[in-house]
Amino acid sequence: MGAFEKFSAAFAASLLINISPVHAIGPVKVALSDPIYSEVQCPPNTQVPGQKAGAGLRPVCVSVTVTANNPSKKAVVNPAVFGRVFDEDGTSVVANNPDGASDAGQLTMIEGTLPPGSSKVAFQFVAAIGPSEVFSDKKLEFTSIKAISYPGAGRYGTITECEMNPLADECDQGDDIETYRRRSK
């Protein structure tokens, strides 16, 4: 083996040794654990996300504090929160996941940065419950809860008033979601 081949092999081996999933280009998954939650006052005109999935349900704003374990050596910005949230009867309280079959829908986002390692963070989401149910009577179970930070942190953003309630007077009634975002800022 010549000098060039030896150098190439050594260089390739050094690349393999120094690569870790955290440093790869792609999302950073942050484990969330130990949720503590409480009902908080919703902003005016808050609706259950999803007009069809939320039909007949009442919105309840829930503040959640969790322990976040960021495996990255860098802070992550504005991670999206995913997972399942059930009440004591096993009913999903997440409107975009009414049967609890998956955690494919984003619950909310954690605004700001999560430092590397373990830290306490808080976020809010809108739970969907029956019109006559009392939230304080419910015991919630959070499963598969995690935050995901995407490179550039531009994949998800805070849901605007017009996205939550496109029929509100101050929102354009058109089909263009960008118009909703512009009008609600």
Which band does the percent of strand residues land in? Answer: 25-35%
Helix content: 10-25%
Largest sheet: 6 strands, antiparallel
Strands of the widest sheet, in order across it, are: 5-4-8-1-2-7
User: Which geometry do the CA atoms define?
Assistant: globular
Task: Please specify the SSE layout and strand pairing.
Blueprint: H1 3-18, E1 28-40, E2 58-70, E3 76-77, E4 80-86, E5 106-109, E6 113-114, E7 117-129, E8 141-149, H2 161-164, H3 177-184
Structure description:
The structure is a single chain. The chain is built from three helices and eight strands; from the N terminus they run αββββββββαα. The chain has helices at residues 3-18, 161-164, 177-184; strands spanning 28-40, 58-70, 76-77, 80-86, 106-109, 113-114, 117-129, 141-149. The chain is globular. Helices cover 15% and strands 34% of the residues. 21% of the residues are buried.
The gist of it:
With 185 residues, this protein is of the alpha+beta class.
Please give a handful of descriptors for the protein shown.
185 residues; alpha+beta; 6-stranded antiparallel beta sheet; two-stranded antiparallel sheet; 3 helices; 15% helix; globular; disordered C terminus
